[in-house]
């Protein structure tokens, strides 16, 4: 099962979306326009620090450049296609990506802070029994920009709605982050970069069902963010039943990596969205709703 958006919501802007470009890509874009590379830094400050997506308001750019940007480029974070709110104030959004597909992101408000849960794949290949996303086919990995853009899409309105800053980001949405390794790490780099959101890596947690060799790779790469290991069972027999990935990534194999395999302490936890929150797409058919009800109690 894949989350597919109605045809009326799939019209794509033909212009280049600057959110899809990293610093180097944006510099190349401006060079291609006959501009200096420093324009990239100027525009990134407007987009990511001042949260401005209207070129006309970027006052340190010349009028001619602003008009040229209007013709050639845009700043379009993923559109919100559907929104749900629980009784405790938690919000879940279905965000449109790639014209026809969608992923979910969840904002968890607290009195003095807010946590955003982002997705890393469209669907998932791990088929965990408690997880609604596990009953979907894995369509593809999200690229780094699509992961990062989830944060851009939600940050401002969530902070305005709740009066608290976005203080934490958790990779606990749709998909297994460590099976999209390169894009997840690049998205973290954007989130923590001074040209991006400038967030401390200590405020970012990547959750995994337990891909042992990829956890070790995190340590080898010296990453600074936190790692959360979703156990869901304390022995291999039970874990094999509900998490097929355990057959090739046993608890013993995970133990050999050590408690600091990714550079920060590892925490055993449960994903905040997939096991606990019914996916929006599930209501599209009785069959999907039945699958969701089986997984929502995880």
The overall average pLDDT, rounded, is 82
Instruction: Give the tally of β-strands.
Output: 12
What's the main sheet like? Answer: 8 strands, mixed
**Percent range of helical residues:** 25-40%
Strand content: 15-25%
Going by CATH, the architecture of the largest domain would be Alpha-Beta Barrel
Structural class: alpha/beta
The domain tally reads 2
CATH superfamily of the largest domain: Aldolase class I
Protein topology:
Layout: E1 16-17, H1 23-32, H2 38-49, H3 63-72, E2 73-74, E3 80-85, E4 91-97, E5 101-110, E6 113-117, E7 121-122, E8 140-141, H4 144-162, E9 166-171, H5 181-192, E10 204-208, H6 212-221, E11 226-230, H7 236-242, H8 251-255, E12 266-269, H9 286-295
Parallel strand pairs: 1-2, 6-9, 9-10, 10-11, 11-12
Antiparallel strand pairs: 3-4, 4-5, 5-6, 7-8
Helix pairs in contact: 1-2, 4-5
Features:
2 domains; 32% helix; alpha/beta; DNA polymerase, domain 1; 298 residues; TIM Barrel
Describe the structure.
The protein has 298 residues and is of the alpha/beta class. It folds into two domains: 59 residues, DNA polymerase, domain 1; 216 residues, Aldolase class I (TIM Barrel), CATH 3.20.20.70. The protein has an eight-stranded mixed beta sheet with strand order 3-4-5-6-9-10-11-12, covered by helices on one side. A hairpin with a 2-residue loop joins strand 5 and strand 6. The longest helix has 19 residues.
Structure, briefly:
The chain is an alpha/beta fold.
